[in-house]
Amino acid sequence: MVREDIFSLLRETVGIPEYYEWRSRSGCFFCFFQRREEWIGLSERHPKEFARAIEMEKQEGGKGYTWIQGMTLEELIKNKDEILANSKKRKEQIAKKKDNRSWQDILIEDGQDDEDQACLICSL
Description:
Helix content is 55%, strand content 0%. It is mainly alpha-helical. Helix 2 (36-45) crosses helix 3. It is globular, with a radius of gyration of 16 Å.
């Protein structure tokens, strides 16, 4: 089965989980492979979980642990408007080059998604 087969099966049975409105992967709150705009989506839709993720970064006692390489979640929120604008521009550029597929599918097909780097839980 490929991705579209799975989404068709979900549509025909239990429905597509709501998190796919703003996520490209599973519903794990603390997925290391979330895109920056997906962390922003988490902050807007599940602020308590986002706050927990911020606290986890702080618990490392300044050792440099972050969910996003080179950026804390607090820095992410400070740059939220710029990040969302860049994301929107990227999606528009991709959409101009492609047909009516979703932006998530296009990123995967164009090799701009780390599909081959899933965490152990997601790849089981």
